[in-house]
Amino acid sequence: xxxxxxSAGLLLLAALGFLLIPVLRGRKAQTEEDRTALNVTxxxxxxxxxxxxxxxxxLSTEQLQNGRDEAARELLADTDxxxxxxxxxxxxxxxxxxxxxxxxxxxxxxxxxxxxxxDVERARNFAGQPQTIEGxxxxxxxxxxxxxxxxxxxxxxxxxYMAQERAAxxxxxxxxxxxIGGREPELLGQWAQALYFAGDKQWTxxxxxxxxxxxxxxxxxxxxxxxxxxxxxxxERFEDAIGFWERLVAVLPEQDPSRQAIQGGxxxxxxxxxxxxxxxxxxxxxxxxxxxxxxxxxxxxxVEPSDxxxxxxxxxxxxxxPLAVKRLTVADLPVEVSLSDSDAMMPxxxxxxxxxxxxVARISRSGNATAGEWIGRSQPLSSSTTEAQHLTxxxxxxxxx
Length: 401
Hints:
Serine Threonine Protein Phosphatase 5, Tetratricopeptide repeat; Immunoglobulin-like; 3 domains; elongated
C-alpha cells in the first residue's frame, strides 16, 4: 500500500506542476507589464517637461525635437522584449489554482469509485504460501470478509474448519455456501456433515431433510452416503449402515484410499450382526500399537510441564484425521502409550482398517491437536505391528514433513 500511495503522490505532483507553472509565468508577465506602464508614464512626464522648457524659452524648436527623440529611444529600449512577453496570452491565475485543487480531489474520487485497491491488497496478501493450517484459515477468513459473496471462499473455509475439527464454524460456512451457490447435492452433503458433528452426533429431522434432498438430486453423493452410514452405525442400525456404505464403496474410484476404511466399517457392522466379514484375519483382529514417547533434551527448557501432548496414529495413505488419539501433558513424558481401535475417533475409521499407519506426537501449548510447537513422527509401519515403537519429539512443528 505504501508503494501505491507514493507513486500516486509523485504523479499528482507532476500534474500540479503542469498547472502551476503557467501561473508562475503569468506572474512574471504581469511584472513586465507593470514595468512597461511605468516607463510610458515617465516618457509622458519627460515630454511635458520639454514642452514647459520650450515655452519658457529655454529650448529651441530643434532642441525640443532632439529631446523628444531621445526620450522615445529610451522608452523603446526599456520596453524591447517585454512586448513579446506581454503578447503571450495566459489564463487568469484563478482558473489554474482551482484546477490544481480539483485534480487530487477528482483523482481520489474517481479511483475510489472505479479503482481496485481492495483487489490489489488481497492479491498481495495471497502472494505467499501459508506455512500452517492456522495461516490458511486466517487467509480464508480475510478473503470472505473482503468478499462475503464468494461461494468458493466460504467452501474452502468450511473444509479448513472441518480439518481443524471446528464443526460449528464449518456448519456456518457451508450454510453460506448453500445460500450463495445454490442447493447443489455436494454442498448439502457437506453442510449436513458439519451440522451432525457440531450437534454432538445427534441425528435430526433437518439432517434427514438435507441428505434426502442431496441424494434425490444425486443418488451417488458420497458425503451424504457416508454420513448416513455413520449415523446408522452410531444408532446401532447396522444393516442400514452396511447398506449406505456399500452404496458408497460402489461409486468410489478403485484407487480411492478411503475405500479400505469404509470397507473396514462395513466389516465391523457385519461383525456386530454376526455376519462373515471381508477382512483378512490379520486386519480383522483389533489392532493395538505401543509407543514410547519422550522429549529431546534440547527442548526441555522450551516447553512447560502443563503443555498438552497429543499422541495419535493416522493412515499413512488416506484421510488426514487421526485414527486413534490420546492426550497427555509434557509432565507425563517419557511415557508408554497404547493406541488401539478402542481409541478410534470415528467408528468407521480405525487403525485396523488401514494396512499402514504413522505415529505422531505433538506438543501444543494451545491444546490444538492439529497444530502446535514441537512434533515427532515415525515412518509408516504396518497396523498389525506388535513390537513397541519409540518416538522422540524433536522438531519444530512447522518444519516437520
